[in-house]
Amino acid sequence: MDWVTFWDGAHSIYVNDRHKMVHYQRITADIVSLIPDPSSRVMDYGCGEALGAPTLADNCAQLILADAAPTVRATLKDRLGGEPNISVLSPEETAQLPPASLDLIIANSLLQYISKADLKALLAQWRGLLAPGGAVILADVIPPNVSAVQDAAALLTFGAREGFFFSALLGLARTAVSPYRKLRADLGLTTYEEGEMIALLRGAGYLPQRLPKNIGHNQRRMAFRAVL
């Protein structure tokens, strides 16, 4: 199994429905705050279930949801097919978009699941898709010194604040024997030092900065804006 196969199948990464709901509410609100203006053309790359997509679409002119998992894309198309300014694409289809057709590309909680070489290739591809002054947001980037224990602590803190603390405890116990845990042990997660990410983005032709807040609940992880 690889990461795409994992996310394409049934999994228990969310401890209950409450966790899933508030997770997507927080992410959606954070992304909305980063959309420059209502005329923006936005792509959420590696979007997952994108439960907040209608809200995002209300705050921009065009929303492209891109994901490598076929079942995820099919579910998105079934759920959002009636939304006039939302489209669902595969990574291969995004590569065929017209030049300068996007103003903002968001990759949230994606980088840990792809190689550094793949990220460099995506950054080069995205440069061609962005209009002048457009930007890439890379969020939920994991530094090397953030451990699974610290991620668990962040989840428990989030659970205590949002009313699913005890479910989070049980969920962590399930995760310890889940396919996610095995994949994390076998494949690892790609991590970046802050300076390494800044240098990588500069080398790819962007003007980068680390944002003061990460997208989502885990503030031990990092977010970056890279502008053309």
Q: If you had to describe this structure to a student in words, what would you say it looks like?
A:
This protein is α/β, with parallel strands linked by helices and 228 residues long. The chain is 45% helix and 19% strand. It has ten helices and seven strands. A seven-stranded mixed sheet has the order 3-2-1-4-5-7-6. Strand 1 (41-45), helix 3 (53-58) and strand 2 form a beta-alpha-beta unit. Helix 7 (148-162) packs antiparallel against helix 8. It is globular and about 45 Å long. The protein starts with a helix and ends with a strand.
Strand content: 15-25%
What is the number of E strands?
A: 7
| Main sheet properties | 7 strands, mixed
The parts where pLDDT drops under 50 for at least 5 residues are: none
Helicity range: 40-55%
Would you list the SSEs in sequence order as H and E? Answer: HHEHEHEHEHEHHHHEE
Question: Count of helical segments?
Answer: 10
User: How are the strands ordered across the major sheet?
Assistant: 3-2-1-4-5-7-6
- End-to-end separation in angstroms reads 36 Å
Provide key terms for this protein.
10 helices, 45% helix, 7-stranded mixed beta sheet, alpha/beta, globular, 228 residues
Explain the layout of strands and helices.
Layout: H1 3-8, H2 17-32, E1 41-45, H3 53-58, E2 62-66, H4 70-80, E3 86-89, H5 91-94, E4 102-108, H6 116-129, E5 130-141, H7 148-162, H8 165-175, H9 179-187, H10 194-203, E6 207-210, E7 222-227
Parallel strand pairs: 1-2, 1-4, 2-3, 4-5
Antiparallel strand pairs: 5-7, 6-7
Helix pairs in contact: 7-8
